[in-house]
């Protein structure tokens, strides 16, 4: 049995593109927490976050052979996830009135809805950049590599996106 834990990400992507399910499984294991964090930030409920991550991973698995640049795998899968989040939010569209006797934890959660709503107003690439940076902890060099951008471009787009979020939230 072959152990993929020490295999490079690019090598795993190549193997997964050729139909190696274990290689794709290892890719998923390496990125799951980041995908889930992004989905949790975007969605209202943990179950919805789990659902969109599952849908995105299935779509990525089914379409990995269409990935044009292997270096762009992470931005590609985050884009799929962002699209799934947007689609689920549009179809669910359950913005209920908050009862006055709601528990404090639920009220705190409701306060985050404005941030999520503002986040979803950003351009798709900007959402991926902010999510990778803020939620995933990636440096601009790493994000640039993932998205095929210059690190300085990543930094300026991130700064503009965060400024946009501030303006929306005022």
Question: Can you tell me about this structure?
Answer:
The chain has 170 residues and is mainly α. It has helices at 9-17, 21-42, 46-63, 73-92, 104-121, 124-135, 140-147, 151-169. The model is unreliable at 94-110 (pLDDT under 50).
Helical segment count: 8
Largest sheet: none
Helix percent reads over 70%
Principal-axis shape equals globular
Return the structural class: mainly alpha
Indicate the radius of gyration in whole angstroms.
17 Å
What order do the helices and strands follow? HHHHHHHH
Please state the average pLDDT score: 82
Strand tally is: 0
Beta percentage is: under 5%
Contiguous uncertain segments of 5+ residues? 94-110
Distance N terminus to C terminus?
Answer: 56 Å
Feature tags:
mainly alpha; single chain
Blueprint of the fold:
Blueprint lengths: L8 H9 L3 H22 L3 H18 L9 H20 L11 H18 L2 H12 L4 H8 L3 H19 L1
Short précis:
The protein is mostly helical and 170 residues long. The chain has helices at 9-17, 21-42, 46-63, 73-92, 104-121, 124-135, 140-147, 151-169. Helix 2 (21-42) packs across helix 4.
């Amino acid at each position: 049995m072959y152990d993929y834990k020490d295999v490079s990400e690019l090598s795993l992507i190549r193997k997964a593109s050729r139909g190696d399910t274990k290689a794709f499984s290892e890719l998923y294991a390496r990125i799951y927490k980041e995908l889930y964090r992004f989905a949790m930030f975007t969605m209202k409920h943990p179950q919805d976050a789990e659902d969109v991550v599952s849908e995105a991973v299935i779509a990525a698995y089914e379409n990995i052979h269409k990935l044009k640049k292997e270096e762009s795998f992470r931005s590609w899968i985050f884009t799929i996830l962002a699209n799934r989040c947007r689609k689920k939010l549009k179809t669910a569209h359950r913005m209920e009135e908050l009862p006055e006797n709601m528990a404090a934890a639920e009220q705190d959660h409701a306060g985050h809805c404005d941030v999520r709503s503002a986040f979803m107003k950003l351009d798709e690439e900007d959402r991926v950049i902010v999510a990778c940076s803020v939620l995933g902890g990636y440096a601009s060099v790493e994000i640039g590599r993932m998205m095929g951008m210059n690190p300085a471009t990543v930094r300026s787009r991130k700064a503009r996106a965060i400024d946009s979020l501030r303006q929306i939230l005022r």
